[in-house]
């Protein structure tokens, strides 16, 4: 195995994580394994995105827009529906204890959606044919462009620096800011020395922006249920409306914290 090829090495590492969780999910539909498999896919996609950026620099006319993970992305999206519902239920369980406001009708709605999304997940997991990851791994292993460790390290640092300079323009698009920061965070694991980028600070920012994302996921389903299903005379209608305000405030707070920390992190790199 070529130790100078960190993209290949990290790809193989996450490929093992993906395969392990996929095998487990075929036996039992476990929410932790759903989460771990999706995280593995996010890292794999980040490595592939970086590879495509590097290939375009080496050969701008090569046409690297080709979708190399189409089936893997389909699986990721389908099981993501289940994960979204589970996130909503976890948030409600926490906030119910704090606010002491029961939302039984909404919770029953989520339970019914969880049952449906689990069926989708189970079906997609069992029909999935795991061939794409091995093909991309072979592509990485044999590509001379990424097989010189020192040159590759320099190239990755250049790409990371360029993406960092673009971050401020995404402050008004926090979801996109989160995606860019996550790419940077995963790319840093490929560097010989990532300490100067303070990855622990990025992790802290991603926690805030991740909470923002979870709030958004819950808000979308809250509003959909209240406006399209729940009759206005029901007491829970007003309670859910108040709950939406609470979640929206939490979302804004997390967003503000994430952006503020990102500004400080960028300044610390100068």
Description of the molecule:
The chain is mainly alpha-helical and 270 residues long. The protein is built from nine helices and no strands. It has helices at 6-27, 31-58, 70-99, 104-127, 132-142, 149-166, 174-188, 199-228, 235-268. Helix 1 runs antiparallel to helix 2 and helix 6 runs antiparallel to helix 7. The radius of gyration is 21 Å and the shape is globular. The two termini are 37 Å apart.
Defining traits:
9 helices, 270 residues, 0% strand, globular, mainly alpha
Distance between the termini: 37 Å
Percentage of residues in strands: under 5%
SS content category: mainly alpha
Report the average pLDDT across residues.
Answer: 92
Question: How many beta-strand runs?
Answer: 0
Shape verdict: globular
Quaternary state of this entry equals single chain
Question: What is the chain-wise order of helices and strands?
Answer: HHHHHHHHH
Number of distinct helices: 9
Extract low-pLDDT stretches. none
**Cα gyration radius (Å):** 21 Å
Task: Report on the biggest sheet.
Answer: none
Helix content: over 70%
Q: What's the short version?
A:
The chain is mostly helical. It is built from nine helices and no strands.
